[in-house]
């Protein structure tokens, strides 16, 4: 368990992603972009909700400063995770950015309707994917103001 | 294709700076201005003088405004099924934690604090352009929407 001081030095990012390849690319891209990022991974929607609600193996999970959410996943998909996050008064203030291969207009519209904070399409090429992660870092973790974790208590 | 940005801002100075910055940053941006919350809602709902107003691709929303403030505008936008899908970015001088938390609670898409210096302000708008108008996927404009 981290002390609050120690937790505050880090930016906790929750990546909800079932593809091991994409998890690895995201980890590597954040390592290049920002050493203060601690990337936590949930491989499906059920794990993601357990992490966010600090249930079971995740009792000591930190509250994410940002969540990156894939849409198509086993067990519970990203649309359901998004709906649950945004229906929960405690969790809804966590900026939740959709990061998916889908560029379908219906998915984009549905996610904004469910109050996703932003929608991004994963590029296929490695360099472009790294650039996208870097721009997420530069915008969300450097420019945007995020809800203060101290305010939760 | 032009990109429609609605700026809800009561300070003529900030309006002018935002207009000049976007002119340099992205020539496709058409900046529309509402100088208080009542005007903003009329623009978004195509009411009165705004019957022909376009649906914004992005709204930049100040918090402290005359008549109807930005928190009320945000609550109205996000309670409306047609308007809620418009990405709404709070852009304000306030860096109070209570404003940040409350704005995210009301489902602001993002919260940005205006820097005091022009160069920093222009750099912030550059990053809004690079992220929101270049990287992000925005809901498609639909005739019925």
Could you characterize the architecture of this molecule?
The complex is a heterodimer of chains A (153) and B (145). In chain A, helix 2 links the parallel strand 1 and strand 2. The N terminus and C terminus of chain A are likely disordered. Helix content of chain A is 42%, strand content 16%. Chain A has a single domain, classed as Rossmann fold (3-Layer(aba) Sandwich). Chain A is globular and about 35 Å long. The two termini of chain A are 17 Å apart. In chain A, strands 2-1-3-4-5 form a five-stranded parallel beta sheet, sandwiched between helices. Chain A is an alpha/beta fold. The longest helix of chain A has 18 residues. With 145 residues, chain B is of the alpha/beta class. Chain B has five helices and five strands. The longest helix of chain B has 18 residues. Chain B is globular, with a radius of gyration of 14 Å. The mean pLDDT of chain B is 95. Chains A and B meet through helix 5, strand 5 and helix 6 of A and helix 4, strand 5 and helix 5 of B.
- Spatial shape of chain A: globular
Biggest interface, which chains? A-B, 29 and 29 residues
The number of helical segments of chain A is 6
User: Percentage of helical residues of chain A?
Assistant: 40-55%
Span between N and C termini of chain A?
17 Å
Quaternary organisation: heterodimer
- The CATH homologous superfamily name of chain A equals Response regulator
Rg of chain B is: 14 Å
| CATH level-1 class of chain A | Alpha Beta
Mean pLDDT of chain A: 92
What is the H/E order of chain A?
Answer: HEHEHEHEHEH
Q: Sheet bearing the most strands of chain B, described? A: 5 strands, parallel
Helical percent range of chain B? Answer: 40-55%
Tell me the domain tally of chain B. 1
- SS elements, strand count of chain B: 5
The tally of domains of chain A stands at 1
Low-confidence stretches of chain A: 1-5, 149-153
Question: What portion of residues of chain A belong to β-strands?
Answer: 15-25%
Strand order of the largest sheet of chain A: 2-1-3-4-5
- And the CATH topology of chain B? Rossmann fold
> Which structural class do the helices and strands of chain B define?
alpha/beta
């Amino acid at each position: 368990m981290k002390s609050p001081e120690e937790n505050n030095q880090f930016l906790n990012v929750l990546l909800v992603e079932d593809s091991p390849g994409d998890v690895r690319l995201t980890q590597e891209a954040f390592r290049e972009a920002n050493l203060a990022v601690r990337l936590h991974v949930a491989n499906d929607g059920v794990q993601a909700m357990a992490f966010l609600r600090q249930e079971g193996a995740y009792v000591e999970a930190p509250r994410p400063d940002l969540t990156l959410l894939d849409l198509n996943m086993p067990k519970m998909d990203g649309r359901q995770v998004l709906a649950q996050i945004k229906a929960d008064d405690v969790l809804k203030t966590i900026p939740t950015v959709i990061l998916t291969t889908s560029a379908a207009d219906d998915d984009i519209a549905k996610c904004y309707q469910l109050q996703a904070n932003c929608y991004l399409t994963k590029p296929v090429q490695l360099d472009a994917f790294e650039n996208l992660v870097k721009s997420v870092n530069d915008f969300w973790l450097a420019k945007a103001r995020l809800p203060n974790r101290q305010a939760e208590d | 294709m032009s990109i429609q940005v609605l700026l809800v801002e009561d300070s003529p100075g900030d309006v002018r700076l935002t207009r000049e910055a976007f002119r340099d940053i992205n020539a496709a941006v058409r900046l529309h201005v509402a100088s208080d919350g009542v005007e903003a809602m009329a623009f978004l709902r195509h009411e009165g003088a705004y019957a022909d107003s376009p649906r914004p691709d992005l709204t930049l929303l100040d918090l402290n405004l005359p008549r109807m403030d930005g928190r009320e505008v945000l609550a109205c936008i996000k309670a409306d099924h047609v308007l809620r899908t418009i990405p709404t970015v709070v852009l304000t001088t306030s860096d109070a934690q209570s404003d940040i938390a409350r704005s995210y609670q009301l489902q602001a898409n993002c919260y940005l604090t205006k820097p005091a210096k022009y160069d920093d302000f222009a750099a912030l708008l550059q990053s809004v352009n690079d992220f929101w108008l270049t990287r992000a996927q925005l809901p498609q404009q639909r005739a019925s929407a």
